[in-house]
Amino acid sequence: MSNMENIRKRILKDRLFTLIVIVLSFTACIPLLAILGFIIKNGISSINLNFFIHLPKPVGEHGGGISNAIIGTFIVVGIAFVIATPLSLLAGIYLAENKKNFFSDVLRVGIDILASIPSIVIGIIAYLWVVKPMKSFSALSGGIALAIIMLPVVIKSTEETLSMVPDSLREASLALGVPYFRTILKVIVPAGLSGIITGILIAISRIAGETAPLLFTAFGNPFMNLNVTKPVNTIPLVVFNYSTSPYEQWHKIAWAAALVLIAIVFVFNFLARIISKKWKTKF
Q1: For 133-142, what is each residue's pLDDT tens digit?
Q2: DSSP code for 128
Q3: Distance from the CA of 256 to the CA of which of 63, 66, 79, 209 falls in 20 to 30 A?
C-alpha cells in the first residue's frame, strides 16, 4: 500500500508540475498574443494590393501605399548584409580558430561592447561618419548603421557554430596535406554552414525593424528612390512618422505598416528555425 501511495503522489506531483509549466508558458505568451492581436485588429483593414504597389498619398487623400518603404527597407538591409556578412564571417572564423590569445580576447570584449551599444548611438555615429562627409542622408549611410548592429550578432553565431566542429575533421584534412586555408574554406565552414546562415537570418530579422539609426541616416523619402546615395523611406520610418502624426488616415497606414514589418521579421525567424532544424549538422 505504501508503494502504491508513493506512486500516486509522484504521479500527482508530476501532473501538477506539468500543469504549472503549461500555465506559465501560456502566461509568457499572453503579451505577445495581445500585441499581435492589437496590431492585426488595427492594421488588417488597410492591407490590400494597392497598399503594396502604390506610393504614399498626401494628407486628405484616401488610399496610398508603402511601396517605396518596402523597396527602401530591402535596399538598406541589403547594403547592411553585403557589408556585415563578409566582415562577420572573417572575424568569426578567426575567433573560432584562435580561441586563446590576447588579440582574440580583446576582440571578443570589443564585440560584446558593440552589441550592447544602443542603436540610436550607432545612428549618431553613422551620421557623423557618413552623412556629414557626404552632406546628404542616404540609403548607404542607413545600411552602414545597420551593418554595425548586425556585426556582433553574426560574429557570435559564426564563432559558436564553428567552435562546435570537431577537431578531428580539421586534423584529418591537414593530415591529408590540405593547406590550412583550404581546410577552413572546404571543411570547417561547410560543416557549420547551417548555423552561420541561421545567425545571418536572425541578424537580418533584427535590423529590419530598427528605427532609431535610420532617423539619422536614411531619413525618409515620400518618393520611390533606388539611388543609394539619396534618402530612402523604410517601413520602420513609416511606422514612426505616421504614428506620431495628427492624421487619423496616417495612423491606419502606420498600423498596417507595422503588421507588414512583423510579417517580414516572422518570415526571417521562421526560415532561421527551419534551416537550423532541417540542415543541422550532426557531429
Answers
A1: 999 999 999 9
A2: I
A3: 79
